[in-house]
Each structure stands twice: as C-alpha cells, then as structure tokens.
Amino acid sequence: MKIVVAGGSGFVGEPMCRMLLSRGHDVVVLSRNPFNVDAGRGRSWDAKTQGLWAHEIDDADAIVNLAGENIGEGGRWSEERKLNIILSRVNATRALVEALRDAPPRPRAFVNASAIGYYGPHGDEELDESAPAGNDFLSDVCRQWEEAAGTAEPLARLVIVRIGLVLARDGGALKKMLLPFRLFAGGKFGDGKQWMSWITRDDLLRLFVWAIENDRARGVYNATAPSPVRNEDFVKTLGRVMHRPAIMPAPAFALRLALGEMADALLLSGQRVLPVHARNDGFTFETTDLESGLRQLLVT
C-alpha cells in the first residue's frame, strides 16, 4: 500500500512510519522540513494550502493525519496559542480532504488522530465511543478536528482515533515524569483521584496500522488500554517499578499557578475511557496491565 502520513516525524508519527515500512508499505511523509524525515519519503507542505504534495494523494491507498501543534509544550495557553492549536489541526485536515476531493476516485482509508480530551472531564463515569463531547477547550479542539475529518467520509473509509496518555520511555508525559522520580520527588497531581486512560505507544502504533490495513475498521476508536487507573495509583505503580517513593505531591494550586488553564485540562482532571469499539471489532491490546507495561518500558 502507498500511505501518505501528515505529521509523520514526531513522537508517534516517526515510529509508526517505521512500522509501516517494516510491513512493506510505501510511506510518504508530509513535513515542513522534508529533509529531516528519517522514515519514509519526505514531501514539503505547509499544513494548510495545496501544493505539489497533493499529487501524492492521487494514487495513495491511505492517508493518516497526525498533524497539529503540541498542546503540552510552550508554556501557558495564551489566546493566540489556543487559536494556533485549533487551526494547526483544522487547517491541515481541510487541506488533506481538499487534496482527496481532487484526486481520482479509488478505495482509500482516511485515518485521523484525535484525543480523549474530546469527552471533557467526567469524574468516575466510564466512557465509550458513544459518549458526547465535553464543553472545555480541549473538547472544542477535538470536536472541530473531527468535524473537519468527517468531510472525508464520502471520499474514503473514515477512521478517527481518540488517543489517550501515550506511554514510551523516550518522549511524551512519561519521559517528563521520570526525572522527578529519579530525584525522589515524584508524586500525585492534586488529590490524585483523576483518571488516567493510558496506552503504550506500541499498542497505539499497532492500532493505527490495524485501522489502515483492516477494510472493516471505520468510525471512532478510543486508543486507550482497557484498564484506566487513577493518578494516585499510576504514580504509586511508577514509583514501585522505579524503586522510588511516590510521596511528593504536586498541589493543585501550585500547578494552576504555574500552568494556568493547562493544569486543569492536562493534569488535574481526566476521563475513564474504555476502548469498546476496538475490542468489539477484534483489535487485541498487547499491554492491558499498567505495571507490566511500565516494567517493559523502563526495566527490560
């Protein structure tokens, strides 16, 4: 298969491209810096307008959209930054759908990332893919992103992957948590009661590849392991795996003082999300237990 990947040089995108290449696929990566693409053939794009890159869609069997500004980097959310977070996703998605609309008709898959932030804070309620959108900033980001992706549905088999907390040693939230624990300063965020719906990066990559290759996959899939945990249990488990205590909590007021709105959205609230659709459609998670997953990532 020929697969065009937007956002294919990041924490999730690059290893996914490597996995696709290992399975014999032809991978084209759309990037602002195509000469820095290490996995796949780089093609230049600005993530908002049409260009020569759009011709790569003509004979593509699948388009994967991971493009979007990192919500957790760059400090507090100013109004300008919040707008950039939204537009970086919506504009890139619209550009891909426009290229798809102009391409010769053929069977294709359009696999678009989203996030479980779609649901907003929900306390202890279990959430599957049928749960409604929330009403905070991250919910609005995901809703607009998914609406833009939805315009591809008449043109391709549409899959939306709502991603949870992705665990890998070399990046993401877990990497940021390791240093405090190594310094014996790890602990829960706020009261620690918020749910963390996690997934190992390897399982996430497998889910994306499954969605690309499986013609029956369509609709929304929660990309989370089937065993979410509370923050206090997550940090206790991480401490146990690292042989460190988890006794230095980060108070909610301090997190809000440092991060503003980001603190509540990313650290102090959560969702108890279950991957009902993926499991019903036959996808098998290799890692369902947090402790074994962390040991595999950090010890073996």
Strand content: 15-25%
Return Rg in Å. Answer: 19 Å
The helix tally amounts to 10
CATH class of the domain at 2-167 and 198-224: Alpha Beta
Which CATH architecture of the domain at 2-167 and 198-224 is right? 3-Layer(aba) Sandwich
Walk across the major sheet and give the strand order: 3-2-1-4-5-7-11
Provide the structure class.
alpha/beta
Question: Oligomer, anyone?
Answer: single chain
Shape: globular
Q: In total, how many beta strands?
A: 13
How would you sum up the major sheet? 7 strands, parallel
The helix/strand series, from N terminus to C terminus, equals EHEEEHEEHEEHEEHEEHHHEHH
Distance between the ends: 33 Å
User: Uncertain regions: pLDDT < 50 for 5+ in a row?
Assistant: none
The fourth-level CATH homologous superfamily of the domain at 2-167 and 198-224 is NAD(P)-binding Rossmann-like Domain
CATH topology label of the domain at 2-167 and 198-224: Rossmann fold
Considering DSSP H and I runs of 4 or more, what fraction of the residues is helical? 25-40%
Mean pLDDT: 95
Describe the SSE topology.
Layout: E1 2-6, H1 13-22, E2 26-31, E3 41-44, E4 62-65, H2 79-102, E5 109-115, E6 126-127, H3 137-150, E7 157-163, E8 165-167, H4 172-182, E9 195-196, E10 198-200, H5 201-213, E11 219-223, E12 229-230, H6 231-242, H7 252-259, H8 261-268, E13 272-273, H9 276-280, H10 290-298
Parallel strand pairs: 1-2, 1-4, 2-3, 4-5, 5-7, 6-13, 7-11, 8-10
Antiparallel strand pairs: 9-12
Helix pairs in contact: 1-5, 2-3, 6-10, 7-8
